[in-house]
Amino acid sequence: MTPKLVADIQPPYYTAVFTSVRPEAPEGYSETSSRMQEIVRDIPGFLGYETARTPGGIGITVAYFRDLESLDAWRLDTEHQAAKAYGREHWYESYSVHIGKVERSYSFERE
To answer: Which positions fall inside the ABM domain (predicted)?
Structure first.
């Protein structure tokens, strides 16, 4: 299966870029990650996400939202807040979050 990128979103929209350092497969992470994916998909205005991880433990997830209200709904979700707190305590060595407004975007896909 070829990975599918998020594309063809009409600007403006917003991104939340989450960059982290953590061990490869900490206990409970996979289950929590799956649950967070379920929750965010139900937020009106959520457009999709892409994620990648290096063998050295650096991960990057970019989530796309139609507007700041939908991004704030994700940030303020109680299960998401609990997962973030647990992650700081048990999984992550460090992380950063960058919020941006996309004013222009384009894509390419080989036929």
So the answer is: 13-99
